[in-house]
Amino acid sequence: MNGLMLVAQREIRTRVRTKSFLISLAVSAVLVAALAFLPKVLGGGDTYDVGVVGNAPAPVAQLEYSRLPDEAAARKAVIDGDVDAALIDGGRVVANGELDQRLGLILEAAHRDAQIKAAGVTITPLQVESVGADAQYQSVRTGLATLLVMVLFFLLIYSAMYVAMGVVEEKGSRIVEILLTSVRPWQLLGGKIVGLGALGLINLAVIIVVGLAVSFATGFTADLPPGMAGIVVSAIVWFVLGYAFFSALAAAFGSLVSRQEELNSVLTPMTTLMMLTYVTAYFAAVEPTGTLARVLSLVPPFSSMVMPVRTAAADVPLMEILIAGVLMVVAVAAVLLGAARVYRRAVLRTGARVKLGEVVR
């Protein structure tokens, strides 16, 4: 075990200082911050400034009134951009070009309410009842699930590729022969997976922290659904399981070749499986209660992305989560054992590409 931790520490120290890792970390933080600010930017202003000539209408939450002396001053204020629109004597609206659709609806509703009140009619508001505890958060949960699909996919494929590239680099340069004089093959493989996995967790932690910080800054946290802590924990746990599965495959396939040029072709089965998992998880974000999402969220390795996405998009029974977790742990253990066997037999065989069937036999 000491050998494994030494290898893991070496991987962390080596990779964390590289420009590529630091740049990817910065890019991840910037992209997440931009996505968190996007609803605020696209949503426009919360209130409108309306100039008023004559009697001021009843207060409206979305409107701020500015008193103006006459219509000429109101027109000038509208053209200069000092106000979004001007209300003249409670019956006319002056706008610079076409009136903003949302502002027009608010003014129309306020004008209608004023006329109804003047007529002495009392309006009884509708009683609205939510039939689901999280019904008001459904659109937000769908957005979070979609974002989670992209984050998990890129982190998983990015981390797994780093594992494969590291294996090929050590094998091609024959450094692995020196390393194996001090540690066992399973320790070298395990240390590489643990070390690069720690870097993947750092990347995921940066994304989560930056996303939550920007959400607090923009006030978006008020719209976040309850149970965000559970969603975050679920994403971390399933990332670890998914990373362990795919990084073991990447190491096994990477040990079959000695040149980086051959890596893409030998990793084709793994990348195809990851793409299928990604597509399935994307559909699960839109239809989290559908039959396809429910079934594949229990099947490894699809569960590594589908289950956290389902958890973010909808309420999932605890029993289904536990079953999916147990099955995924079993699948990870099986893949790790198989990958260690392939790695041990192929990593010292340099030259031409080693056939997987030959190594397994």
TrEMBL record:
<keyword id="KW-1133">Transmembrane helix</keyword>
<protein>
    <submittedName>
        <fullName>ABC transporter permease</fullName>
    </submittedName>
</protein>
<feature type="domain" description="ABC-2 type transporter transmembrane">
    <location>
        <begin position="19"/>
        <end position="339"/>
    </location>
</feature>
<feature type="transmembrane region" description="Helical">
    <location>
        <begin position="266"/>
        <end position="285"/>
    </location>
</feature>
<dbReference type="Pfam" id="PF12698">
    <property type="entry name" value="ABC2_membrane_3"/>
</dbReference>
<feature type="transmembrane region" description="Helical">
    <location>
        <begin position="189"/>
        <end position="216"/>
    </location>
</feature>
<feature type="transmembrane region" description="Helical">
    <location>
        <begin position="144"/>
        <end position="168"/>
    </location>
</feature>
<dbReference type="InterPro" id="IPR013525">
    <property type="entry name" value="ABC2_TM"/>
</dbReference>
<feature type="transmembrane region" description="Helical">
    <location>
        <begin position="321"/>
        <end position="343"/>
    </location>
</feature>
<keyword id="KW-0472">Membrane</keyword>
<keyword id="KW-0812">Transmembrane</keyword>
<feature type="transmembrane region" description="Helical">
    <location>
        <begin position="21"/>
        <end position="38"/>
    </location>
</feature>
<feature type="transmembrane region" description="Helical">
    <location>
        <begin position="228"/>
        <end position="254"/>
    </location>
</feature>
